[in-house]
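Example 9 (inverse folding). The structure is encoded as follows.
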């Protein structure tokens, strides 16, 4: 989670509570930056025990090495910002031309 060009929260660190939130193609929270702090804000009710999911907002190049494992309906198959997911699906469905 990037706060700015110099600061981010690394969810891979064992003592960072950010490790409990992950990317999901159907998010139930959004990341909000305010006054130099980051907040995960529920965008719809989150049932007890449900995983907190938000859109990592990765661009196309960033998404290439990051498969999405959310398993939700409409999963793009890779971690990709919501506005780009439909473009990615169209691209992936395009039939390949046969080789001469
Ligand atoms: Zn997904």
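The amino acid assigned to each position is listed next.
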């Amino acid at each position: 989670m990037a706060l700015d060009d110099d600061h981010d929260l690394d969810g891979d660190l064992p003592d960072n509570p950010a490790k409990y939130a992950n990317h999901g193609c159907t998010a139930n929270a959004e990341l909000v930056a305010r006054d130099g702090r980051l907040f995960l804000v529920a965008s719809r009710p989150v049932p007890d025990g449900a995983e907190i999911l938000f859109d990592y907002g990765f661009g196309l190049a960033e998404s290439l090495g990051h498969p999405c494992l959310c398993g939700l309906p409409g999963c793009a198959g890779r971690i990709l910002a919501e506005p780009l997911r439909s473009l990615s699906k169209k691209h992936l469905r395009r039939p390949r031309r046969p080789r001469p």
